[in-house]
Amino acid sequence: MDEHGPIVTPAPDYPARANLGHARFFSATMHNITTHTCEIAGDTAHCETYVIGTMLSPDRATMKIAPGRYFDRLERRAGPDGTPEWRLLYRRCTVEMSLDGPADWVNGPMCKGFLRSVWSKKDRSYQRPIEVGSDGERW
Questions:
Q1: In which residue ranges of the chain is CATH 3.10.450.50 found?
Q2: What DSSP character marks residue 107?
Q3: Cα separation of 55 and 3, whole Å?
């Protein structure tokens, strides 16, 4: 289960719901996972992870930065082949603060020519093998 604000979503449904929401309200997002602590007791673990979410507006003129935390409960279980593996059981998400501002820098000369992310398999992260080249969407 995933709790993002007032919405609690079963794990199998979360990726589609999150992707739909991000695509509806933003032209690009990135989440950076930072400080992580984990308390393990037998087959259960409780974790806290800091996250910094950055979201670019649909018109690419403004952006938001939203630091928060994830509170997770994990369980160690037998995987498909019987080997023990850790699985996320519950996630609760906080938003600690936010910052809104213009996206002038990314739209300006300092980033001109840098690759941009694309929300599809056309994103250059899927390129195999990774090579230097001029293809791909750019700022």
A1: 2-103
A2: H
A3: 19
